[in-house]
Amino acid sequence: MNKFKEILIVLLIAVLSFPVIYAAVLLATGMLRIEYGAPKTVVEDEKKLQVIKRTQKTDSIMISNSRTFQALENEKIEIQKEQERLQNLHARLEIAQKELDEKQVIIARQREKMEALVEKSDSLEIKKYKAQAKVYMSMKPLEAAQIIESFSADQAAKILGAMTDDRQKARILAAMAPEKAASITTRIGGTR
Asked: Which of 100, 115, 157, 160 is deepest in the core (most CB within 10 A)?
């Protein structure tokens, strides 16, 4: 029985000392605190209640700020839409500028071709008038004058302007009617 008493005493000491040892371990690890006075949750609840209590003035300021914030948000959305519109417009302008540049290159090429054709045409026309001038220079001045008088003043001036022999040219002009000769003479100065 002696042994039974000893086991009973050890068991009783273990049961009574366990809560004390457990509390000491919790205090040491920071898992248990001992507070005096009102619990912190009550103080925190009171602070929350003070924050929640608002006056009319703070309510109106909050409403005003809310409206201002909403207006700013709307303005921000409008600005973003305008930026997108401007970006689209800029992209379209770049495309149009590219097309315009391409068309200008095409027009420049066409102009060069046309100028070449005009030069070729002008040189052919000059050759034609030189050939006609050669024929009329070989004719008698009276006969040549009669034929050349039948042409327009511009054509006659070009033919006579293409003549290289000034004496033959003078003889042909002398054989023409004075008015026609004067008209052709004024135009000959511009054909050279």
From this structure: 160
**Mean pLDDT rounded to a whole number for the chain:** 84
Query: What are the residues whose beta carbons fall under 8 Å from the beta carbon of 186, sequence distance 6 or more?
Result: none
What is the sign of the dihedral through the CA atoms of 7, 13, 18 and 24?
A: negative
Residue 46 pLDDT greater than 70, yes or no = no
Q: What is the pTM of this model?
A: 0.41
Tell whether the model's pLDDT for residue 192 goes beyond 50: no
What does the alpha-carbon distance between residue 190 and residue 192 come to, in Å, rounded to a whole number?
6
Structure tokens at 76: 């921000």
Q: How far apart are CA 2 and CA 37, in angstroms?
A: 49
Distances (CA, A) of 113 to 66, 101, 102, 126: 70, 19, 17, 20
In sign, the C-alpha dihedral spanning 49, 51, 53, 59 is negative
Q: Which residue has the tokens 């519109």?
A: 85
Q: What tens digit of pLDDT does each residue of 84-141 get?
A: 999 999 999 999 999 999 999 999 999 998 988 888 877 888 888 888 889 888 989 9
Which pLDDT score is estimated for 47?
Answer: 66
Domain boundaries, the chain: 55-191
Q: Is 32 helix (H, G, I), strand (E, B) or coil?
A: coil
Q: Which residues contact 144 (CB under 8 A, 6 or more apart)?
A: 136, 137, 172, 175
